[in-house]
Design goal:
α4 packs parallel to α5. The strands form four sheets. A seven-stranded mixed beta sheet has the order 1-16-15-14-2-5-6, sandwiched between helices. The protein has a five-stranded parallel beta sheet with strand order 8-7-9-10-13, sandwiched between helices. Strands 3-4 form a two-stranded antiparallel sheet. The N terminus is likely disordered. With 321 residues, the protein is of the alpha/beta class. The protein has eleven helices and 16 strands.
Amino acid sequence: FFSSLVIRVVDASMTSARRSPSLVRTCGELLAAHDLFIFDMDGVLWHGTNAIPGAADALRALRDANKRVRFVTNNASKHRSAYVDKLRKHGIDASLEEVYSSASSAAKVVKHTLRRSHAFVLGMEGVVRELEDVGVKVSGGHEYKPPATMEEAHHQELDLTVDAVVAGVDHNLNYMKIMHASFLLQAKGSDISFVATNLDAHGPTSNGRFAPGGGVSVMSVQTASGRKPDVVAGKPSQMILDLIMDEEPRIDRSRALMIGDRLDTDIAFANAGGIRSLLVLSGCTSVATLEQKQSEGEAEAHMIPVYYADSIAVLAASDSA
């Protein structure tokens, strides 16, 4: 299995349509060149409930080599503790302090940066709990009770103590909830903040399909209210990376590697933050998509990885494989 996996490097100095990746690195060289490995999870370590083959071995190899490991996700549907449980279920050792989500980052920015105290949420248990963990009162969310009729909705009394609208992936997203958020943003103007957990259009499922992501909720509210988010907490925003690097002051960014499956979030996140990136083809991005982006030159250069591989299992493959 491991012998079929390869890592290829993309020459960032070339931007012509003829640029093509070539095999120039071994996993041993990757381990030698990096001290901090930052993993996206969906599409990298698992698809839905199915683990990516070799993921646990790859993480075990990094731990054995005394590498620092962090896990990041734009999925705001679950609390970080749920991701710790899922990682462990798939044989991957992890602690709560090693997991960063767009939900936890959004909660921190609402509380500590924007200094807001009451959020109306288009989202699920994950972002609700993260907000409550930092002391922000929550309305809406997965327990939202919509008005019985459209007439009631149009004339509903708004709770003007709400000073933030937080939007993310929401399996119960509906017209009434979008309207309520839009009414709040219209009513309070600059006295209310609009925070997006992320702008992901979709995410992978266990059967290879792609389900709507957090960006659907965000764009619905943006379209209805005419207002763009004030802050986007998830990738490719630098909020999560800045938090990680602040907590690892002894590691230079040149020694950090981001491993992800999406060009527009994971790879753009790494490039914007000045760290290297490894694209794995086990999730949202195919070779054809990567080649298309390469052919577009400078316009898409921010989404071109330094390395790419079939899957994360390559990090456990020996140089002699």
